[in-house]
Amino acid sequence: MALVTSGSGAGPVINEVEMNGGADPSATTVRATVVQASTVFYDTPATLDKAERLIEEAAGYGSQLVVFPEAFIGGYPRGSTFGFGISVSIANPKDKGKEAFQRYHAAAIDVPGPEVTRLAAMAAKYKVFLVMGVIEREGYTLYCSVLFFDPLGRYLGIEIYCAPTADSRPVWQASMTHIALEGGCFVLSANQFCRRKDYPPPPEYEFAGFGEEPSADTVVCPGGSVIISPSGEVLAGPNYEGEALITADLDLGEIVRAKFDFDVVGHYARPEVLSLVVNDKPQLPVSFTSAAEKTSAAKNDSIAKSY
C-alpha cells in the first residue's frame, strides 16, 4: 500500500510525535489518513479483513483519524444497471437485474449488527477515530451511510446520504477547496481506486458504460483522494496512481485562523434573516390514526362547539 504524505514524502513519515496513546484533548495537531482502496465486492467478511489491515497500517504511521470511502463495506455498484436500460422485466423472477440486487442486498450490513461491532473493536484495538462508508440495509431498502467510532471503540453515530454522488473526482477538486474555505474546516475526501478485476468477472457481474466489457486492468474508479486545509491548501494528494494511504498532519489552529475570515455559522451568520432547519427524525412511510382517537377528537370538538 502506497503512502502519500504532504511534502512529497521527503524524510521519514514519523519523526516527531508519539501518537500511540489515543486521543489527547490537549493536542493541537492530529495525524489523519484517508484510505484509497477498493472493496472486495460481494464479500463483506473479506472487506472487513482488508479494512482492518489498512487501519493497522495507518495506525502504524501514527494516524489518529482514519477515513474510508463511501460504500467501502457493501461496495459501490459501478457499472451495474441492475437491469435498467437492458432487459428489466417485472414479470420475470430470474431477471439478471433482480439477481444482482439480491446479491448486493446480501453484501450490505445492518446497523446495529455484527459488522458494526467488529468495526468498533478495530477502532479500539488501533486507538483511532474511524470513519467508515457502508451500504446499510434496513429491511429491503439500502442506504449509502457513514459510521463514526472513537478510539475507545464506541459507536458515535451515523450519517445517511440523501443521494450518493456520481461525478468524477477531477470535477470535485475545486469543490473540495471551496468547501474547505467556506466552512473554515479541513476536508478529507476519500474515494476508492478500482480496476475492473476488483469486481466479479462476467457474466456474474456485467459492466455497463464502457461500450464493451473493459479489460481486467482497466481503471473504473480513478481515486483522487485528497486532504485540504481550511485555507484551501492541498496538504496531501490527490492520488490517481492506485490504492494508497493519503496522510497529513492537521494543525487544529488553522480552523481558528480560518474562522477569523469567515465563520458561516458563527459571527458571520444572520439567523434572523436566513436559517436552515434540518429534520433528523425518522419518518414513517405509513402511519395509522386509530378509530378511538378519531372518535375522541370528534367528541371533544363537539363539546367545544357547544360552549
Automatic annotation (TrEMBL):
Pfam families: CN_hydrolase. GO terms for biological process: detoxification of nitrogen compound. PROSITE patterns: CN_HYDROLASE, NITRIL_CHT_1. Its EC number is 3.5.5.4. GO terms for molecular function: cyanoalanine nitrilase activity; nitrile hydratase activity. It catalyses: 3-cyano-L-alanine + 2 H2O = L-aspartate + NH4(+). SUPFAM superfamilies: Carbon-nitrogen hydrolase. Residues 30-307 form the CN hydrolase domain. InterPro entries: C-N_Hydrolase, C-N_Hydrolase_sf, Nitrilase/CN_hydratase_CS, Nitrilases_CHs. The active site is at residue 70. Signal peptide: none annotated. PANTHER family: CN HYDROLASE DOMAIN-CONTAINING PROTEIN, NITRILASE. Belongs to the carbon-nitrogen hydrolase superfamily. Nitrilase family. This is cyanoalanine nitrilase.
